[in-house]
């Protein structure tokens, strides 16, 4: 009997020692370095008494962590962390709250998002008086002479009367105004905007559109369809100051949602100038970095046709410009969108049997640019939504990688929404990142069934779980502020009617915006997959667990843009970017996924708090 207990006790001790030594087995060099130095290090901040999910498989959970010089010093239990505290060390007591790594949004258009936030939102306005009041308040914050833009109005909900320029002229005497209806087929211009556009009773209706007139033949301010082209080209490009303000606005919004790093694909879409992202890099991001106005970390992607320019920049400055700005790679487009029937498929659309979608780029040209970009060491990312577009890009990636130069490429496909049978496995086999946006499925569930047929849609749409099962790298993002309509208008509608600048594109986005930066909502979507008005999940077999969804917004997202050495997990040596959530029950969080962001820390400093009176730790 004594021998039995001795043996058992020894076994228990071995197990306990093994568990205690798990952090030592971490193969992260930074971890070992920081651990060796820990005896002489002093923490600036210790975070205690919480449930800390690290996104680091070597130590998934802890209750405390220490931070020094903006980086994680140690993660573990309180007894090991308190040793690093001194008189001047501050303490953040979580009172049992959950902490997760700062979220990384893998696909945004950051400055367009900030520009869109300044627009007048008219959705839900149900009276003429409220319509006018919204415009009056908005114009008070706009400089004299600047355009006031907005949209989303629906005259049906206030009785059907169409708005007129006369409604708003008295409150907008010094600012041209353009306000689009919710469907995008009609817009209201005030009299000053009509004058700037040269629209009078003498104008004839353009083909495919109409200028609405009163009984005297005078324009009322309403323009329908192609008549909008008379006004839209007069909307000026956003100024440098407006874009700088947009960055600050977008950054504050992201921090409220717990996002500490974004992968920014910029003001670049089919039909727009490839110079826009470069202008923003020099005029906005460089300015913000040098002036101390950066609040979130940014990984920048540039139009693929400018790949050689990015190579030159990297050769001079490297990939890491500062703790805030990272040069990512290049992006191109393979097809359009599902909503516009321009996503490229192997089979025709169920509601348009002669249409397979659009291949929006010449494949030979795309291959040559991809090959050159890859050979120069750039990361390549390509937009592909339809199953045929995804197969074409995977084929091209396989061909480019067949040059026998083995290296860590991390090719990306943005969206990867609809995949043919057998395609899922190729992502894992080829180590291609699937950069996906969970919230898009909320709107696509109904439209995909109509456009593709129920069986085909459910067989190949938003296959998150299948991709992970086949060892694909999954990175979550929002595509903020883009929606399906924007992609449609970019290639199919707007750019074929008149030249447009990125400011107009941002305006169109404002009308139909459905994408928002909201990782907690997206995580819930990926786990529940229940579209609005539905009672059950769409394709329930593709629902994720909380761990997989969190990782797709943290460590996997960091790996997808080569930032996993710096962010993505709460591991020693990485930046101390983390989010405090409103819940203190991991079980409830994993089941219902209901939580809010209470505070966001960047580099160990509080960048956002739901309680404005809180001072930075």
Shape: globular
Question: β content, as a range?
Answer: 15-25%
**What separation lies between the terminal Cα atoms?**
56 Å
Major beta sheet summary = 8 strands, parallel
Poorly predicted parts: 1-27, 484-499, 506-513
Query: Structural class per helix/strand content?
Result: alpha/beta
Instruction: Record the strand order, biggest sheet.
Output: 8-15-16-17-18-19-20-21
Total helical elements? 22
What is the share of helical residues? 25-40%
Number of strands: 24
Q: On the 0-100 scale, what is the average pLDDT?
A: 89
C-alpha-based Rg, rounded: 26 Å
Notes on the protein architecture:
By secondary structure, the protein is an alpha/beta fold. The protein is 36% helix and 19% strand. It has 22 helices and 24 strands. The strands form 4 sheets. An 8-stranded parallel sheet has the order 8-15-16-17-18-19-20-21. This is Protein LONG AFTER FAR-RED 3 isoform X2.
Which key terms come to mind for this protein?
617 residues; alpha/beta; 22 helices; globular
What's this, in brief?
This protein is α/β, with parallel strands linked by helices and 617 residues long. The chain contains 22 helices and 24 strands. The strands form four sheets. Strands 8-15-16-17-18-19-20-21 form an eight-stranded parallel beta sheet.
């Amino acid at each position: 009997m004594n021998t039995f207990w001795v043996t058992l006790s020894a076994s228990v001790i071995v197990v306990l020692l093994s568990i205690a030594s798990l952090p030592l087995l971490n193969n992260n060099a930074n971890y070992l370095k920081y651990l060796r130095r820990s005896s002489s290090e002093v923490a600036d901040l210790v975070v205690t008494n919480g449930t800390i999910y690290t996104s680091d498989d070597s130590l998934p959970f802890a209750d405390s962590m220490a931070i020094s010089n903006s980086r994680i010093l140690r993660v573990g239990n309180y007894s090991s962390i308190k040793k690093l505290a001194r008189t001047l060390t501050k303490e953040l007591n979580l009172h049992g709250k959950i902490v997760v790594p700062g979220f990384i949004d893998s696909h945004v258009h950051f400055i367009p998002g900030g520009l869109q936030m300044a627009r007048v939102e008219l959705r839900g306005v149900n009276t003429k008086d409220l319509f006018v009041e919204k415009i009056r308040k908005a114009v008070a914050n706009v400089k004299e002479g600047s355009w006031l833009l907005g949209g989303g109005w629906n005259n049906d909900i206030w009785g059907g009367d169409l708005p007129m320029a006369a409604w708003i002229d008295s409150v907008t005497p010094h600012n041209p105004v353009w306000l689009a209806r919710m469907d995008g087929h009609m817009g209201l211009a005030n009299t000053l905007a009509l004058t700037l556009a040269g629209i009078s009773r003498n104008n004839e209706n353009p083909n495919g559109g109409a200028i609405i007139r009163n009984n005297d033949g005078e324009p009322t301010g309403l323009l329908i369809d192609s008549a909008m082209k008379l006004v839209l080209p007069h909307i000026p490009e956003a100024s440098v100051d407006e874009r700088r303000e947009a960055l600050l606005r977008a950054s504050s919004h992201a921090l409220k949602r717990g996002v500490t790093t974004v992968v920014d694909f910029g003001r670049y879409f089919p039909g727009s100038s490839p110079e826009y992202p470069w202008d923003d890099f020099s005029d906005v991001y460089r300015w913000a970095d040098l002036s101390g106005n950066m609040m979130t970390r940014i990984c920048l992607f540039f139009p693929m046709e400018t790949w050689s320019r990015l190579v030159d920049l990297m050769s001079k400055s490297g990939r890491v410009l500062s703790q805030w700005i990272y040069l990512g790679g290049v992006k191109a487009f393979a097809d359009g969108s599902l909503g516009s029937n321009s996503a490229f498929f192997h089979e025709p659309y169920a509601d348009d049997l002669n249409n397979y979608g659009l291949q929006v780029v010449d494949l030979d040209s795309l291959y040559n640019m991809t090959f050159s970009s890859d050979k120069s060491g750039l990361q390549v990312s390509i937009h592909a939504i339809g199953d045929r577009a995804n197969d074409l890009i995977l084929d091209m990636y396989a061909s480019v990688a067949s040059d026998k130069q083995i290296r860590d490429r991390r090719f990306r496909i943005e969206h990867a929404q609809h995949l043919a049978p057998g395609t899922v496995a190729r992502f894992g086999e080829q180590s291609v990142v699937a950069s996906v946006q969970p919230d898009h499925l909320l709107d696509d569930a109904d439209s995909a069934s109509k456009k593709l047929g129920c069986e085909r849609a459910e067989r190949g749409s938003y296959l998150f779980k299948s991709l992970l099962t086949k060892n694909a790298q999954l990175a979550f993002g929002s595509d903020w502020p883009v929606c399906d309509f924007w992609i449609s208008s970019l290639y199919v509608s707007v750019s074929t009617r008149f030249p447009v600048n990125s400011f107009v594109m941002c305006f169109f986005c404002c009308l139909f915006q459905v994408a928002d930066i909201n990782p907690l909502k997206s995580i819930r979507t990926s786990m529940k997959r229940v579209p609005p008005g539905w009672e059950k999940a769409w394709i329930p077999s593709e629902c994720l667990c909380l761990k997989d969804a969190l990782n797709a917004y943290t460590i996997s997202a960091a790996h997808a843009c080569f930032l996993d050495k710096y962010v993505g997990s709460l591991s020693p040596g990485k930046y101390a970017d983390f989010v405090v959530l409103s819940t203190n029950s991991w079980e409830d969080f994993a089941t219902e996924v209901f939580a809010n962001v209470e505070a966001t820390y960047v580099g160990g400093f509080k960048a956002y708090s739901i309680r404005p009176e809180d001072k930075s730790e």
